[in-house]
Amino acid sequence: MLTRYVKQVAAVLLCAALVACGGNDQKSLRVGAKPFAESMILAEMIAQVAENAGIPVERSIPFGLTPKIMEAVKQDVLDVYPEYNGTSLTFLGQAPTSDGEASTAAVSALFKPLGLELTGKFGFSNDYAMVMTKERAKDLGVRTLQDLTKISSVRYAVDEDFV
Predict the structure, then answer these.
(1) Residue 121 domain-assigned?
(2) I need a labelling partner for 70 at 20 to 30 A (CA). Which of 9, 62, 86, 120 fits?
(3) Between the CA atoms of 93, 80, 7 and 35, what dihedral angle is there, to the nearest 10 degrees?
(4) Quick count: other Cβ atoms within 10 Å of Cβ 95?
(5) Is the pLDDT of residue 103 over 60?
(6) Same domain, residue pair 15 and 74
(7) What's the domain range around 76?
(8) What residues contact 138, with CB distance under 8 A and at least 6 apart?
(9) Measured between alpha carbons, how far is 11 from 9 in angstroms, rounded to an integer?
């Protein structure tokens, strides 16, 4: 089961690498990542799959957050980077949705006029969740994100792409 999953992910990554190389006059695949662990791991996966397929790779891991990395692809500085549907929708002024297929279709449509292409999914989802101690959640009466809107004394931390 795991072997089949790994092969599926590798196939998607290789397709992404090959599509990204299509317009590159250079002989190497230029792979970028956002500056956080998950993005850097996914970018490294893309790089290693490409290298295993005989494609030379130039790594820019990490490169920058959404505005910088998306512009780098548009300006032909990078060929490929891992992206999230929800982040893309929000960055492009759209509301994210919990429907993965609808998100993918919307992002694909929004990317086309920008000269970008969504080349394939990795085969897994990344859903955000709140993290707090059980005691603090009970004391505050927090069970949902909406519950936080009623509390003025809560401090939270998120990365720039989440905001």
Answers:
(1) no
(2) 9
(3) -70
(4) 8
(5) yes
(6) yes
(7) 2-114
(8) none
(9) 5
- 122 in a structural domain: no
Separation of alpha carbons 31 and 61, rounded Å: 7
Torsion of CA 112, 115, 121, 127, to 10 degrees: -80
* Same domain for 91 and 29: yes
- CATH code: domain of residue 99: 3.40.190.10
| Model pLDDT, residue 10 | 45
**Stated pTM of the model:** 0.70
- Residue given tokens 């993965």 in the structure block: 100
Using the CB atoms, write b or e for 40-73: b if 16+ within 10 Å: bebbbbbbebbeeeebebebbbbbbbbeebbebb
Amino acid letter for position 8: Q
Q: At a CB cut-off of 8 Å and minimum separation 6, what does 82 contact?
A: 33, 34, 39, 42, 43, 46, 122
Integer Cα distance of 80 and 20 in angstroms: 6
More confident position, 19 or 119: 119
18: how many CB neighbours lie within 10 A of its CB? Answer: 15
pLDDT greater at residue 148 or residue 70: 70
